[in-house]
Amino acid sequence: MAFDNFRLTQKNDRSFELTGTVTKSEIDGFRQQALAKLQKELNLPGFRPGKAPLNMVASNYDESTIFSETINIGLTAVYRQLIDKFELKPIVPPTIDFKSPPSPTSDSWEVIITSCLEPTVTLTPNYLTQIKKLKKDKDQQKNVDTIMALIEKNSTLVFPQPLLDHEWEHYLEDNKIDPAKAKDLKNDYGDQLKRQWLLNLALNAIGQEHKINLTAEDLKNIQLPADLVKSNPQMAIHLLLQDKIVKFLIENIPQA
User: Fold this and answer.
1) How far, in Å, CA of 45 to CA of 65, rounded?
2) Domains with residue ranges and CATH for the chain
3) pLDDT bucket at 20, cuts 50 / 70 / 90
4) 32: number of CA atoms within 13 Å, CB side?
5) Residues 139, 183: contact at Cβ < 8 Å?
6) Per-residue confidence (pLDDT) for residue 224, from 0 to 100
7) Residues 123, 34: Cα–Cα separation, whole Å
8) Which residue, of 94, 118, 249, 252, is most buried by count of CB atoms within 10 Å of its CB?
């Protein structure tokens, strides 16, 4: 199945939509796959476990169960093939809607799939020149704060709405939020989330531009909490690299 009638619409914020029709023949194929899956779970007298004929499988499950499995199998297959076809790398699970509610008797499904790609950051070409005009402070944290503020000022972030919605839902699940305050809180949360992404992406871009990499010596002298290094070594390496990039930028600030 190629799902050739689906089209891709990419938006300016890095989100995208995949829209198209799943045909009757494709739905029938997904239904057969659903019955085959349910077949493995069904034990009937006179048949080896999982070997009952598909027509008997269908008669031993209510139609809503078969249809639900058909939907799950079908939409998973559609999404995976379209992602490969259009060479997309989404960073959040898709939101899948229908133009009209499907039913077991539907001749087709009109599908709308929404997701997004990773945010992007563009730095102004003269950010390093501006850093070299700063005045270095004796307080190292003030230097870091000054660098971060300058990077933020000299960066343009493209941030997809589906990513914010996805992260916000996780935040609501983990915290008890007063519904009356949720809207204002979401705005604040969104601002903080976007700033984190902007600074992370900008520092990564600076590291690539100046070929800043971790050395064996860096890893040997790692100064991060031992539990973080053990539980999430990838995050530890990420933080260590960003720290090295920030130190590189501070070294470009002239002595006062």
Assistant:
1) 22
2) 7-116 (3.30.70.1050), 120-251 (1.10.3120)
3) very high
4) 6
5) no
6) 59
7) 50
8) 249
